Every structure is written in C-alpha cells, then in structure tokens.
TrEMBL record:
This is Aminoglycoside phosphotransferase family protein. It comes from the Bacteria. Gene3D superfamilies: 3.90.1200.10. Pfam families: APH. Residues 28-247 form the Aminoglycoside phosphotransferase domain.
Length: 296
C-alpha cells in the first residue's frame, strides 16, 4: 500500500486474545483509501487476516456469507471467520491457500484449470443459502435495482460518455427491466481474478472478499469477469462455465450485456474519483465493445 496503516492497538489486543498469542503484523491493504487489511502471522506458519470493513453494510454481508454460505465451499474454498467485532466492523479470518490468480504467471492450461475450479465453487455458493422470504424478494428485484441505478451513474459520468453511448446505456437498462425472471442465487458479488485464489501445490481454488455477497440473479456474478478477464480469453469463460456446470441461457447472456453497460458507466464514475486508471480503462473498453457490437 502507498501509505501503510498501523493496526490499532485495541484491535491487535482483540485479535491476540482470539488467536491465543500475539501475532506479527503486516499491512497488506489494497492501494485505495478505504482498504484496511493486515496479515497476522503466528509460529509454525499459521496465518490469519484482520480486515476492517469499509461500511456497516459490507461488514454485515461478509459476516453473513462467511457464517451461512461460504462453508459450503469446503476446506480452503473460502476464509473461515474466527471472530468478528460489529463495533469495529472488524473480521478475523483464516488464510485461504495460494495467491490471487491475478498475481500468478500461469500457463494457459493452468489458468483454465483455476477458472474451472473457481466456477465450480461459485456453483456451490449460489445454492448454499436459503433464498426465501426477504432474500428471495431482494434477489427477484436485483435486476430492477441495477437498471434503476443506471440514470444516476449517467448523470455522475456526465460528458465522459458521448450522446450515442448514453442512449445505448439507457436502452440496455430498459431491456434489462423487460427480461423474464432469471435464475436466482446467493452470489459472491465481486468474483474476478483479484479475489480468486489458486494454490499450485494443492491444485485448489478459493474465493476471498465476500463483502458484496447478496441474494441476486446468478448471472450478476459473472459481470466483472465478462468485463475484464473474459474479454481476451474466451477459453477462460468456457472453463469457468464448465466448472459452473451449465452455460448461460439466452436471456442471461442478454442480461450480462445490459449489466456490463451499467458497470461500464459506474467504472467511468468511480475510476476518476478513486484515481484508478485500470477501473476507468475497464469501463471505457466495455463501452467501446458495446458500441462496436462485439460484446459477447
């Protein structure tokens, strides 16, 4: 991180009590203002992470996911929640084996294997939580909520989009509203290579960072990969969906296109705000592909 942050003494004491020993601490936050994550190392190669959620909603979503749904991914498939503090929005997590796929220089065959395993884990996650009552209602309204957010993103993006691009995004948002009901799921919400762990030694995948997990439509979990990794690597799309156990339906493929347009505008809003050129570039590239009619 550009400006390392010190773990507050009260949280270090809390984590030490939970772990039964005082760990060595290293700041491993992402290079953005609201990321606060520390690696905690104990003797005999025991490793944990202490994370302060950016918001109360993200804290609630991640704790719920780690308690109710993520255990379905099996040992090493997701972090285990060792302790949590609602007052501090703090989570004490076990380490997931391996490293983020984005950091690994794997062969195309090995990359495909990792994406296949990652897709299989998403399939487990999607059916791991009870989608009844309020959660089903939340999931059923997820596409409508996404479409409703398009106009606000467009207003915030302003002249970063041309008039034809704005027209296209509005049209796709309306088409998203008109789609028939799609398969519902409990989604990860931030599923892409930054959060997909891969252990070459174990040949095992795992997902981390469940702070955006929620009840939604299943296809919403593939938007980030469709707007990044899959753009140049259709083989990885095929591998992920093979692991997932099914291809997207025609309606889901169209929803993915519509959601990609809304994601692109969001990227063009938040990229400059966060001084994140990669986020901005993702949004611009997605819009360019949509305008050229080559998004698939």
């Amino acid at each position: 991180m550009t400006n390392p942050t010190t773990l507050p003494p009260t949280l270090l004491a809390w984590a030490s009590r939970a772990l039964g020993a005082r760990p060595a601490v290293k700041d491993v936050s992402h290079p953005r203002e609201n990321s606060r994550v520390w690696r905690l190392d104990l003797p005999r190669a025991r490793r944990f992470y202490l994370k302060i959620s950016p918001t109360a909603v993200m804290y609630e979503r991640e704790t719920l996911a780690l308690r109710s749904a993520a255990p379905a991914l099996g040992a090493g498939g997701a972090p285990q929640l060792r302790a949590s503090s609602a007052k501090d929005l703090a989570l004490l997590l076990t380490a997931v084996p391996g490293r983020p796929l984005k950091q690994l220089g794997l062969s195309p065959v090995e990359e495909a294997r990792a994406h296949r395993h990652g897709g299989a884990l998403l399939a487990r996650l999607h059916v791991a939580s009870d989608l009844s009552g309020p959660r089903r209602a939340e999931a059923a309204q997820a596409l409508q909520a996404a479409a409703n957010g398009a106009e606000g993103h467009l207003a915030a993006a302003g002249d970063r989009l041309t008039a034809p691009e704005q027209k296209l995004v509005r049209r796709l948002a309306e088409e998203l509203r008109a789609l028939p009901p799609l398969p519902l799921a409990y989604i990860h919400g931030d599923a892409w290579e930054r959060n997909l762990m891969w252990s070459t030694a174990r040949q095992q995948a795992g997902w981390i960072d469940f702070e955006r997990s929620r009840a939604a439509t299943a296809v919403q979990d593939f938007v980030l990969m469709a707007c990044s990794t899959w753009t140049d690597r259709p083989d990885l799309r095929a591998a992920c969906l093979q692991g997932y156990g099914r291809n997207l339906t025609v309606e889901e493929q169209h929803a993915l296109k519509c959601l990609a347009a809304i994601d692109a505008v969001s990227c063009l809003v938040w990229g400059p705000k966060l001084d994140d050129p990669h986020l901005t570039a993702r949004g611009r590239r997605t819009l360019d592909r949509l305008m050229a009619g080559v998004f698939a």
